[in-house]
Structure formats: C-alpha cells, structure tokens
C-alpha cells in the first residue's frame, strides 16, 4: 500500500499544479515571479522526496552535487530564461503581429485542452531537437555534458552546456494565442514531469501516466552508461508519447548512468566541452 501511494505522487503533483493555475487569482497568475516560485516549490518537494524514498543509493545527493545543481537552476531561470525571452519569444511575437498570425480559437478551448496543445507542441520541438543532438556530431558536442552526469537527481534536468540549454528552450509557442493560465500550467506541468524524470525517487507511476509522460525508468535508460548508442532512445523530456509515435521508445531502466569513463565534469568543463579536442579513439562523442 505504501509503495502504491508513492507511485501516485508524480500524477498527484501534476494534478495539484494544474489546479493551482486553473483556480489561482488573476493577480497571482500575472505576477512575474509566480511561475518561477511554482517551479522552485516543485523542485524542493521532489528533492525532499529523494531523501525520504530513495531509488538508488548510488544516486544519493551530496554537497558537491547539490551546489552544482543549484547553480544550474539559477543559471537556467536567470540567464537561459532571459536570453530565450529576449532573443526568441519577443522577436517571434513581433513577427506574429507583423504577419497577422492569430489563433483566437485556441484561447476559447477548455483549459485542459489548451494545456495539452501547448505541451504537445512544445515537446514535439524538444523531441526533434533532442533527437538531432544524438544524431549530428556538432549538436552532440553541446548535449554530451548532460550525459556526463553520473547520478540523476531532481535538478539534473537543468545541467548542460549553455548552448544546448538555449537550443532546447526554443519553441514556436509564442505564435499561439493561448490563455495565460493554460500557458503557465502547461510549462509548470512539463517542469513537474521532467523533474520526476530526473529524480532519485522510488516512484513508478501508473501505466496511463507512463504511456504519455516520461518517467525515471524511461529517462534513466536514456542516460545509461552502457554505451553512447544505448542512449539513442526515449528522447522525450516530458512527453514520451512522441517516442512511441516515432519509434524511438525503449522499455527498461538503468541504475548506472554517465558516459566515457563516467568521470564527473566540473561546471567549467561542461561549459567548454564543445570546444575541447575530441578524445582519441572514443566513440561516445561520435554523434554520427
């Protein structure tokens, strides 16, 4: 019974986040810090669950890992978020206005339908960008640092080379007319799912959840240390459905994650990784 309840925690968190955005006062929704606070609250919750319901002892968080993870969360919200807004979202909204692109019918759809549309569209782009990173050498060099993590934890989804972090944030959502609560609910929900998908939490959600959404089982296999080739599956960051549709879904789990000799990279090494000389005779960085 206890394990059954633990398994329900990820879908329960998703439901709680959706309820918040559906019923929160408009002033809260429009406040610039609300969506960040929701994201941080989810991370804190899942990090606590790692301590209470540990999945793998080898992934147990330590001071160095925690400090690095916190750095990347701050970097992701502060730097990558700002760059995405200035270089992508705002220009795209200007382009939308200049071309007269409008989808007002989207905002008239039921709340949950709008949320689903945003999640599917955003993750469709993430899926193909992520897949390209595993199949084209220049892009793989930006993505490889994320695969050099040697344990999975609640904040590990934020870790990576800045070029990759920016590229994976790109989307066409700014071209859609979606009600603000639904838009924020979609991104918060994607964040919940991705956080659990990287977390050292002993939770295996029900089949219906795992059919549509990425779980730690799916994503640990994507991070497996077996070989570079074995990571070329389960690309969905939050929506595993696209892997099922395009034939890249693979069943299984891996308790040992990392690449090359499984040496943990420092922040400096992660930032400079795409520009270092390729290690002689190592197929992991081939990205072919």
Give a written overview of the molecule.
InterPro entries: Fatty_acid_hydroxylase, Sterol_Desaturase_Related. The chain crosses the membrane at residues 5-24, 30-49, 70-89, 109-129, 158-176, 182-199. With 288 residues, the protein is mostly helical. The protein has one domain (2-275). Helix content is 59%, strand content 0%. The protein contains 14 helices and no strands. The chain has helices at 2-7, 9-23, 26-30, 34-52, 63-99, 104-107, 111-133, 137-147, 162-167, 180-197, 207-212, 216-222, 241-246, 267-272. Helix 4 packs parallel to helix 10 (180-197) and helix 7 crosses helix 10 (180-197). The longest helix is centred in the N-terminal third of the chain and has 37 residues, at 63-99. The mean pLDDT is 94.
A few lines on this structure:
With 288 residues, this protein is mostly helical.
The computed structural class is mainly alpha
Unreliable stretches: none
Largest sheet: none
Rg calc: 19 Å
The end-to-end span amounts to 46 Å
Number of DSSP strand runs: 0
Subcellular location: Membrane
GO molecular function, one term: iron ion binding
Main location: membrane
GO cellular component, one term: membrane
Distinctive features:
288 residues, mainly alpha, 14 helices, oxidoreductase activity
């Amino acid at each position: 019974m206890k394990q059954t309840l633990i398994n329900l925690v990820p879908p329960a968190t998703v439901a709680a986040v959706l309820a918040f955005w559906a019923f929160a006062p408009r002033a809260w929704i429009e406040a610039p810090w609300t969506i960040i606070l929701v994201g941080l609250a989810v991370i804190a919750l899942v990090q606590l669950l790692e301590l209470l319901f540990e999945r793998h002892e080898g992934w147990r968080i330590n001071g160095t890992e925690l400090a690095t993870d916190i750095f990347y969360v701050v970097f992701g919200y502060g730097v990558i978020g700002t760059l995405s807004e200035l270089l992508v979202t705002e220009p795209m909204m200007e382009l939308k206005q200049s071309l007269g692109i409008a989808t007002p019918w989207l905002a008239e759809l039921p709340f949950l339908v709008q949320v689903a549309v945003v999640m599917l569209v955003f993750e469709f782009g993430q899926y193909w960008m992520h897949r390209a990173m595993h199949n084209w050498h220049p892009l793989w060099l930006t993505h490889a640092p994320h695969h050099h993590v040697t344990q999975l934890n609640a904040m590990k989804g934020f870790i990576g080379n800045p070029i990759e972090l920016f590229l994976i944030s790109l989307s066409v959502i700014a071209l859609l007319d979606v009600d603000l609560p639904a838009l924020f609910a979609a991104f918060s929900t994607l964040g919940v799912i991705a956080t659990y998908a990287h977390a050292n939490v002993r939770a295996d959600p029900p089949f219906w959840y795992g059919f549509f959404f990425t779980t730690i089982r799916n994503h640990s296999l994507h991070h497996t240390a077996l070989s570079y080739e074995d990571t070329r599956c389960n690309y969905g960051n939050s929506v595993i459905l696209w892997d099922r549709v395009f034939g890249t879904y693979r069943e299984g789990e891996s308790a040992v994650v990392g690449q090359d000799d499984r040496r943990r990279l420092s922040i400096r090494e992660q930032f400079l990784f795409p520009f270092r000389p390729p290690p002689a005779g190592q197929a992991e960085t081939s990205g072919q």
